[in-house]
């Protein structure tokens, strides 16, 4: 039921690892990059709660509750991912990112709800960790695809304003994997129908209409459980850190480690491929860390809060260490620590959240919860990254990674606010 996340992560990894490279190739300045990303989180802010709400109220006799949204999102995401590197102007690349992120969100949020739908509380840490294991595999492979293409002889350079063929091939492969893996989940997974289907249909007919839906989403936001808000603070600082990485890892590392600043040069494109390779390391590490957690959580109960806090601190150390790296190979160590945080971010908060909300509203609450993911990205894109790293550390673009590490340390400290043992420990 989580296999489709392999394809979703292909989309996210290619988007996170190479859209900034595409933007720079099309003429974007470094400080302008976060603003070019803003359409993605703004769309997520709107799409995620709506999709969650609609999926809670959907039942198809063949496709079930969540799978119709898997399919719609898969079709749109595949098209956007395939065409993104063929953008001939900056506004086209920004538009492709906007459509891609919105479409991936249509599929992704119901996947989170599906795990909570089908597993009892005692197995949810295990379920979300297995999901994270699949995400780690996707991150590692997708992040290395342009490098793989280059090794196979595909051109890694192009004229000014043209995306190299290595990136185009990588995005094309990613589009195929995205669609096919989600299709496998759709074809092989069964969903539980509502306990009383007749009452479910009557409730749906009685409470229908756009304004009612907006009112229900707003009411659920206002009445969210206390634990959800506490987890939201942790997510806020966690995702500020990773949005900073996705926006600035390529310009920061190509400049700080490789001394390459010209997006049309072979040196820059080779360095950008290497950045993808290092980003793949955090996906590979998250895979092994998730595998370790999967083995542990299948046998014993864990303290979710403690695991998450220590993982976030490890990731913070990893980001900050990038500033002190002298040899490029050492970045594998830095991003290995980042991968530990990534694995935990994708599993522990959702396991804790699913233990604290009404199962009948799992989709809408998962969507609302992800507002705490997109709000920090919007803040970062509106100038938060540029303002904070220059104010706190200095003008060198590598200080964006130090800012990311600091944000993860704050996220780790915020976990101390969560004191409800019913959600911090496996049931």
TrEMBL record:
This is MFS transporter. Pfam families: MFS_1. The chain crosses the membrane at residues 35-55, 67-84, 128-149, 169-187, 227-249, 275-294, 306-325, 331-352, 364-385, 397-418. PANTHER family: SOLUTE CARRIER FAMILY 45 MEMBER 3 ISOFORM X1, SUGAR TRANSPORTER. Gene3D superfamilies: MFS general substrate transporter like domains (1.20.1250.20). It is a multi-pass membrane protein. PROSITE patterns: MFS. Keywords: Membrane, Transmembrane, Transmembrane helix, Transport.
